[in-house]
């Protein structure tokens, strides 16, 4: 079990450069198997999810090589392989192999995915999408079995009952090589979906409307890569460093940021009273003064991201008064709360509303557990402000999505230690 050891009373100062987006990368890697050529990505984050996706590729005889942010994938010798378990269970996005294998072979066997334990995460909309395209879907033995008839998949119009990133991407992956036209209505609009569409279109796909609520896909028979795809910066990693810098910084420059992807988050920081200096592709966060409490309500993009509701908590704990967080996507995303209470934070939850009272001046180090990725990183934020040592257990969860943690924090004058 990996532990993160954090000495308290360390303030952040210096620079950090944001890496490629986890949630793009984990869709792009499964998407690569749709290609009839080798594929190359750069700005690939060095996170555990990438390593686990590479293991899954290997099971299908797809070789991959990752070095210094560049990932090469060779799907030209791919073998049709059932994926009922193993590394599939180590991350959420392994469910993208359902859409990708269906698009490639017209059939797929994929185990139920893992990923962050943030409350119920059904995949009924993914299945509804596959069925609309003509697939037969059966769930048994903790896996999803998807088949098609002799004619394979055919384009269809699909209206999602709710906005789902995963279902939108999975249907895109299945439809991109299907016969005919697919229209996804009530599609998710996240930047990572646009990134995936850019990658596929550059290989010859016909996807229009990604980033809006209606995506139109004309199926094509082949996809060929001609250039390296550069992954967009991770808006959640950026938001995390911005929050920790505002809560506990002496002047931090966060580089490689697409500020348009962070609009609701930046607006909230400004409302709190953080005096941000927003530049072309970076944001400078000076030392904060007189922080005000706010209410945060999460919603799908372009709303305030659920993945940033925990990382903003260290900052809200520094504001003068009562803040509230309402996570409409994952009301049970509260794994951080009992752990933060152990450290002396005034944070509670009742009837789906998280209440935070600040300013907290007397946090103390403790042994806590990173129940999931964003819970873990927000505990790290508190640990840096606390008195004494904090040991964050199950730190693997943080490393699922935050690359080169030790090195990046060292660039911010913070020493962290990992113990395996
Ligand atoms: C790998 C990846 O990109 N993960 C992100 C993705 O997860 P993920 O794609 O799993 O999240 P969704 O956008 O699908 O989920 C949104 C909401 O819809 C519900 N739902 C979803 C699908 C479905 O078939 N039925 C259903 O009821 C979910 O329970 C949730 O309440 O978007 C989430 C919401 O922005 C983020 O927190 C995750 O970081
Ligand atoms: C919930 C998250 O990830 P995943 O969907 O991969 O579990 C996240 O990145 O905050």
TrEMBL record:
Pathway terms, separated by semicolons: Cell wall biogenesis; peptidoglycan biosynthesis
Positions contributing to phosphoenolpyruvate binding: 22-23
Domain Enolpyruvate transferase residue range list: 6-408
GO-annotated molecular function: UDP-N-acetylglucosamine 1-carboxyvinyltransferase activity
Localization per Swiss-Prot or TrEMBL: Cytoplasm
Catalysed conversion reaction: phosphoenolpyruvate + UDP-N-acetyl-alpha-D-glucosamine = UDP-N-acetyl-3-O-(1-carboxyvinyl)-alpha-D-glucosamine + phosphate
GO cellular component term, pick one: cytoplasm
Main location: cytoplasm
Residues annotated to bind UDP-N-acetyl-alpha-D-glucosamine: 92, 121-125, 307, 329
InterPro entries the UniProt entry points to: Enolpyruvate_Tfrase_dom (IPR001986), Enolpyruvate_Tfrase_sf (IPR036968), MurA_subfamily (IPR050068), RNA3'P_cycl/enolpyr_Trfase_a/b (IPR013792), UDP_GlcNAc_COvinyl_MurA (IPR005750)
CDD domains xref list: UdpNAET
Active site positions, chain numbering: 116 (proton donor)
Gene3D superfamilies per record: Enolpyruvate transferase domain
Keywords for the protein's UniProt record, in alphabetical order: Cell cycle, Cell division, Cell shape, Cell wall biogenesis/degradation, Cytoplasm, Peptidoglycan synthesis, Transferase
GO terms for biological process, alphabetical: cell division; cell wall organization; peptidoglycan biosynthetic process; regulation of cell shape; UDP-N-acetylgalactosamine biosynthetic process
Tree of life domain: Bacteria
Enzyme Commission identifier(s): 2.5.1.7
HAMAP family for this protein: MurA (MF_00111)
Family: Belongs to the EPSP synthase family. MurA subfamily.
Described purpose of this protein according to its UniProt entry: Cell wall formation. Adds enolpyruvyl to UDP-N-acetylglucosamine.
UniProt cross-references to NCBIfam families, sorted A to Z: murA (TIGR01072), PRK09369.1 (NF006873), PRK12830.1 (NF009470)
Name the record gives this protein: UDP-N-acetylglucosamine 1-carboxyvinyltransferase
Organism expressing this protein natively: Ligilactobacillus ceti DSM 22408
Gene behind the chain: murA
